[in-house]
Design brief:
Elements (H helix, E strand, L loop, with lengths): L1 H29 L11 E6 L5 H16 L3 E6 L4 H13 L4 E4 L8 H9 L4 E4 L9 E7 L1 H15 L9 E6 L6 H20 L2 E3 L6 H4 L6 H16 L7 E4 L2 H13 L9 E2 L6 H8 L5 E4 L2 H17 L20 E4 L2 E4 L3 H6 L11
Parallel strand pairs: 1-2, 1-3, 3-4, 4-5, 5-11, 6-7, 6-8, 8-9
Antiparallel strand pairs: 10-12
Helix pairs in contact: 2-11, 3-4, 5-6, 8-9
Bound molecules: beta-D-glucopyranose.
Beta-D-glucopyranose binds next to loops.
């Protein structure tokens, strides 16, 4: 009997405290001194690795913007290790974060941990890379990945004047990591532009390695790209066959490609056109030195600001800004997405784009 009374009392107390908790949430969202509804709210931000410059910038920008809006931020980098990222997310869920923003390492490996987030009602925003095969992802924010590839392809077409020249020009292809959903978008965007020229023979992939699987670079690794480029040079170009273009999906691969070419004796005078993405400092230095032709500029300040807007809208229960509801299916359905616009930087416009805009200082590129 006594037990039953205590049980009822406990139940009443729990309901009361739940009501208070909900009440507190209500007041904090409506508090005019805190219009963003951020008081006491924590955003968990998971980034893949500190190894690549861009993720450090993404993380820093997200933290700065979210803190400016009044949120607490738990920012973690996972050293490109899937298990580390999973355990970081587990900890964030245990610590009661209110929203998760995740740039995944392997987009297909977070299903189990995110099922837990969903059970606890924690919304998840996939950052830059789509998280696959889980219905726990609420939104996706990224740059237009297909367009990134298209711009890279169009850059090559223009640089070689493929409309008017008959070539043939020799080309090799380097795509990104197969576990990153973005990688195929970049490659497909570029190939949709380049394939007609490959088919007509104006562009000649001397190695014959053309499929995504053949040209992918696990983990976007500089070392892997360098060693594949070294092998290609030895097998196909050491007899003096000219190499006119290397399509590289991003900057970390481009660094490896450039290293291999420089080590093999290529100089500014016979250096191929090389594409990239991210506008990392090391790559801009190569662009200035004539050892890379272009890179895609994805202003991480824009992406971070957009994600903060999304977090705010979620917290306030308002409509979340998206501009694409058809492209990104993660295997469980379309994920509403906000696509930011990428542009390219090269020797002719990098100053205006990257220095005048305050993204880098001139000294950083020396
Ligand atoms: C990003 C690129 C980056 C690559 C390697 C991709 O998912 O969109 O900007 O270069 O990962 O980190």
């Amino acid at each position: 009997m006594k037990k039953k009374v205590i049980g009822i009392m406990l139940g009443v107390m729990m309901i009361a405290s739940l009501l208070t908790a909900c009440g507190t949430k209500e007041t904090s969202t409506k508090d005019s001194s805190n219009e963003s509804g951020s008081i006491g709210k924590t955003v968990g931000v998971c980034m893949p690795t500190k190894d690549l410059q861009r993720w450090n910038q993404d993380g820093d920008n997200m933290k700065k913007e979210l803190e400016k809006a009044g949120y607490n931020v738990d920012l973690q980098y996972a050293n490109n290790e899937i298990a580390t990222q999973v355990s970081q997310i587990e900890n964030m869920i245990t610590n009661g974060v209110d929203v998760l923003v995740i740039a995944s390492i392997d987009g297909g490996s977070l299903g189990t941990v995110l099922a837990d987030a969903k059970k606890k009602g924690i919304p998840v925003i996939a950052y830059d890379r789509l998280i696959m095969e889980t219905d726990a992802v609420s939104y996706y924010a990224t740059f237009d990945n297909y367009k990134v590839g298209q711009i890279q392809g169009e850059y090559i077409v223009k640089a070689l004047d493929l409309e008017n020249q008959s070539g043939p020009f020799n080309i090799e292809l380097f795509a990104g990591s197969p576990d990153d959903n973005n990688a195929r978008f970049f490659f497909n965007g570029a190939m949709d532009v380049l394939k007609p020229y490959i088919d007509s023979g104006k562009l000649n992939v001397v190695s014959g390695q053309k499929s995504f699987e053949e040209v992918a670079t696990l983990n976007w690794s500089t070392e892997a790209a360098q060693s594949r480029m070294e092998n290609l040079i030895t097998a196909y170009y050491s007899d003096g066959t000219p190499l006119h273009v290397v399509y590289s999906s991003n900057d970390s691969c481009a660094i490896g490609i450039t290293n291999a070419l420089v080590n093999a004796g290529f100089t500014k005078d016979n250096f191929p056109i090389i594409t990239g993405q991210d506008c990392d400092i090391a790559n801009l230095k190569n662009i200035i030195a004539g050892l890379q032709s272009m890179s895609i500029f994805k202003d991480t300040r824009t992406l971070a600001a957009k994600v903060v807007e999304m977090v705010e809208a979620i917290m306030k229960g308002e409509e979340v800004p998206v501009n694409d509801t058809k492209t990104y299916d993660n295997g469980t359905g379309i994920i509403p997405t906000y696509l930011c616009d990428p542009v390219f930087a090269d020797i002719n416009n990098y100053k205006e784009l990257l220095i005048d805009s305050g993204y880098y200082t001139e000294d950083q590129l020396k």
